[in-house]
Design goal:
Elements (H helix, E strand, L loop, with lengths): L13 H16 L6 H8 L13 H23 L7 H18 L1 H7 L2 H7 L5 H20 L7 H20 L5 H4 L3 H13 L7
């Protein structure tokens, strides 16, 4: 008797099957040029099945990006030290976690910050996307309140921090942080420079 083909989803869990299949395609193919029909084929469902949960391909891509933002926020919060003794001790592990997320998930990271996809649907103003930025805002706001960070518009400071770490992440994804050009620890050096610009010099104790 011929074995029944494996179905990659359980009855009633079609939405998750579509999302997990698309995430796997994003990882393996390293881009998001696939169609809903191809996602359906690989998920082992009819070509019309994805439309029960996603009206079009863009809707599926936005959900994948939102999952990326959720996971990035979790990674940053998990990396946050409980009792940092300095701004450098707090920013460094969070920044390293950010870059690690991007380099571990290059296609997903590029999708999350895709100008084309994001502008089309206002993706970057979704609360799930903003939640990542709010981790940085919270850290800097607390630092200002504690007198360890310079009193400047906090969103401007957060933008500077994000621009630096986001840029380094893209350079790392593209393999451009070669030691011969940027040294053996470019991220740590960049973070130290960032902290020098943010922190209020503390008297020696």
């Amino acid at each position: 008797m011929q074995a029944t083909p494996h179905r990659p989803y359980h009855h009633g869990d079609l939405r998750r099957a579509i999302i997990e299949t698309a995430l796997d395609m994003l990882r393996t193919e390293k881009d998001w040029q696939f169609t809903l029909r191809e996602v359906a084929r690989r998920a082992g469902v009819s070509h019309a099945a994805p439309y029960k949960h996603f009206p079009d391909r863009t809707a599926l891509l936005v959900e994948l990006a939102m999952i990326g933002f959720d996971r990035l926020r979790e990674a940053l919060l998990d990396a946050k030290p409980e009792a940092p003794r300095s701004l450098l001790e707090e920013i460094t592990p969070i920044s390293l976690a950010y870059v690690a997320f991007g380099t571990d998930n290059p296609a997903l990271y590029r999708l999350m910050f895709s100008a084309e996809e994001g502008r089309a649907v206002g993706m970057h103003l979704d609360q799930r996307a903003l939640a990542v930025f709010e981790v940085v805002l919270d850290m800097l706001g607390r630092g200002q309140a504690a007198g360890t960070i310079r009193k400047r518009p906090v969103r401007g400071q957060a933008t500077a921090a994000w621009a630096l770490i986001h840029g380094i992440t893209l350079l790392a994804i593209d393999g451009l942080l070669v030691p011969e050009k940027v040294g053996s620890a470019p991220l740590e050096a960049a973070i130290a420079t960032l902290v020098d610009g943010l922190a209020i010099p503390q008297p020696n104790t």
